[in-house]
Amino acid sequence: MDILASLGDGFAVALTWQNLGLALIGCFLGTIIGALPGLGPANGVAILIPLAFTLGLPATPALILLTSVYFGAMYGGRISSILLNIPGDEPAMMTTLDGYPMTQKGQAGEALALSGVASFVGAFFATWGLVFLAPQLVKVALLFGPAEYFALFTLAFATLGGIAARSQAKAVIAAALGLAIAMVGVDHQTGVPRLTFGEIHLYEGIHFLIAIVGLFAISEVFLFLEHPNGSAPGDARAKLNRLTAPLPMLKKTTGSMARGTVIGFLSGVLPGAGASLGSFVAYTLEKRLKDKEGTFGKGDPRGVAAPEAGNNAAAGGALVPMLALGVPGSGTTAVLLAMLMALNITPGPLLFTQQPEVVWGLIAALFIGNVMLLLLNVPMVGLFVRVLQVPAKYLMPAVAMVSFVGIYGLSGSTFDLLVMIIFGVGGYLLRKLDVPLVPVILGILLGNEMEKNLRRALTISDGDLSILWGSPIAITIWVLAILGFVAPLLVGRILRAKKSAIVAP
Amino acid sequence: MSDRILGGTCLLLSMLYIYFAAQTQVGFISDPMGPKAFPIAVGVVLALAALYTLFKPDPEPVWPHLGRFGEIVFAVVVMVAYTYALPEFGFVISTSVTAGLLSWRLGAGPVAASIAGVTIAVGIFVIFRLVLKLSLAIGPWGF
């Protein structure tokens, strides 16, 4: 039982007063960020990464703080789904289907409490899945050479658009833009400057945090400016009579949570599937299995429990490839990867062997965060509901200013702030044009690593390209990459049709 | 039409990118692949995807009216001015003005927006500078 011993060490790292305090602050901030309209987990964490970084916290406490924020934001996202019928992020969309009708029936408190419990169950068991599955994947990953890694990065890009991607060409544009940006700066292997146009500031390349904050947070401000009066969300003054879920309701939904968790975890581990597919499949299956009286879509508690467990389990499952291979499978894990890289930690098999305290400390932090979120959410949901009513006209300026503070803190340079504004404008245009932002981020994050592995492979083979498909593992990864790229063209059409058929009425 | 512009712009970008990547000076010691090949390959991939978007565009997105576009341009100008104002006037004053302007353009009344601007600036200064000891821009008056 090596794994349990390592996990115990992880808890020993995580369980200090300072770390527990940070986890509490993180969970609290995260839930608020998730609940606020216009701030999802991805951009919420993006704003806080530079801040945590400039605070100079050591790796483990910083990790604990930020993962708590991240998990908190996932929890908070469901509050607006249930009360306002506005999903905080894409995976929370399925929660609106039965969550909002429950609010209309006057069961908002029950729906919130139930979804809190379902989120906890999903995330908790998915973390156990992570504990046991990740070390197995690490054993495989230790056999990887540079050629296999290059194939793996390609796989990540090929599948990142996701199974429900709208346009693969736009996902390719996004990935290529990201990679192109990553190439700027001094080449690590030969020391020659590339694409810097003689600008000294560009010699070190463009820091990925500047790009992330610009693309996510600043572009959000521009999106809000499109609508006169910052279009405040609907009235959130739903009556909350009770904030606990009655025991019979919990009992009735146990099966839904269990099924949602398993499906969610599996789709989280698969590259490209992610949390959206997890909650979608969990909901559809539940509806097919249990909808005997036609109550789904009209406020059935099982229709809240299954997708909530599913999307939180998927969020845990998505951490498996991210930690074990260093290749994120979804947008939200890409932001987590950025967080690790900002702390100078490179995920991958070597992390498990060389810095086990970081990995297991992180996993222990996930467990602690989960428990805290459950405890925090049940009594304090009333406060979070009030946060929903902060109008965008005061919130968005604050978000913009905090973004500036974070990036300014990194280097104190005006040049970086200007680059961030440029990314904000670019992010706004790309979002309007339906070009996904996550491949851009991933391109910037992984570009240099991808090129380094390709060049290493070719150095080993002295320029012979056939080394790239020279091993069975590499061939397998290439086949998966091609399948993953082609599949959305076929499956996506069916899935989208179904999704809109379910969401429409 | 928007997608065709996107495709055309990306195609142009990829051409420029490949051109500038090819200008990279290579020293006499290099690995077999060298520092040029990967950026050029990325440029080619970008060009291919851009061509596809150019010829098979998606449905048109909903663009805001010209007036709202003006708002976004105004916000960009304010933010750029802010980055230059930071070292001149210090954090609190620059931020109050910028946050106030943004809040005003997002629909707050002039008085409410000014209050919001000052509150945001002072709030951030107190939390990040005084409590968390983060480095903020310091103007001639030390705040």
From TrEMBL, chain A:
Endpoints of the signal sequence: none
DUF112 domain boundaries: 20-442
Organism, as annotated: Chelativorans salis
Keywords: Membrane, Transmembrane, Transmembrane helix
TM region(s), chain numbering: 20-39, 45-71, 111-134, 140-162, 169-186, 206-225, 261-283, 322-346, 358-378, 398-422, 467-491
Protein name as annotated: Tripartite tricarboxylate transporter permease
Automatic annotation (TrEMBL), chain B:
Domain DUF1468: residue ranges: 5-136
Presence of keyword Transmembrane: yes
Domain of life of the organism encoding this protein: Bacteria
Alphabetic keyword roster: Membrane, Transmembrane, Transmembrane helix
The name this protein goes by in its record: Tripartite tricarboxylate transporter TctB family protein
InterPro entries: DUF1468
TM segment ranges: 36-54, 66-86, 106-132
